[in-house]
What we know:
The protein is mainly beta. Among the domains are: 2-60, Laminin (Ribbon), CATH 2.10.25.10; 62-111 and 187-237, Laminin (Ribbon), CATH 2.10.25.10. Helix content is 10%, strand content 32%. It contains 1 helix and 16 strands. The protein has one helix spanning 2-25, and strands at 33-39, 42-47, 51-53, 58-60, 76-81, 84-89, 93-94, 102-103, 118-122, 125-129, 159-164, 168-173, 177-179, 184-186, 201-206, 209-214. A two-stranded antiparallel sheet has the order 1-2. A hairpin with a 2-residue loop joins strand 5 (76-81) and strand 6. One of its GO terms (molecular function) is calcium ion binding. Keywords: Disulfide bond, EGF-like domain, Repeat, Signal. InterPro entries: EGF, EGF-like_Ca-bd_dom, EGF-type_Asp/Asn_hydroxyl_site, EGF_Ca-bd_CS, Growth_fac_rcpt_cys_sf, NELL2-like_EGF, Nephronectin_domain, NOTCH1_EGF-like. This is NID2.
Amino acid sequence: MARIVVLLFLCLMVSSSYSDIVQCLGRTCSEHATCQFASRFFASCQCNPGFTGDGETCTDIDECLTKDTNNCHQNAVCINTEGSYRCECSSGFIGDGRNVCNDIKECYSHPCRGYNATCTDFDGGFSCTCPPGLTGDGISSCNDGVVCPDSSHVCSAHALCQYSPKLGIHCNCLPGFTGDGITCQDVDECAEDKHGCHINAACINTEGSFTCQCKHGFLGNGRTVCEGKLLLFNVLS
């Protein structure tokens, strides 16, 4: 008798599974849908999260169309993907795109290479301004119109030829370099501990300047902010 009961139970289990399989296979679900069983004898196609439709046809939901359907930061750009979306901080900002998009303080890395140029930070960018009396973009050069007249003033590529009543025509190394103007060597701000990077950031020396980069597991601008957890860049809907 016990053997008969066990056999009946197994038959019912097989019958139930077969019924579900038949119901599921009898419906043509979209590749972006899942066959959901409401009971042993009924199944329907349900679109996966991030898609909409009747289950047999599923269309991607563009979460980026309205602010109500995504959680991107105000300083981030929403990028739609198939079945989801991701948030990327706008140019001039750094973060996970969703909770954090901090302004990058470009002036910390001394991007203005023009002689005595002034760097000014603003949200999403920066500007370089040459000092009074000099002209140029401030980023690459600030010139006073003086041309070195002879080979005795062959300035370094990292120097500016200038004139002053006291020194006359002379070569002056650009910021981030040191020397007599004819020979200019890079100043390693990282080795001399002149960088001011965050305690959780690493100083990386570059030609004429340096950058601060948050260590692995931290996120921020490397100078004032290095948050102590790794934030995901892919945001699911």
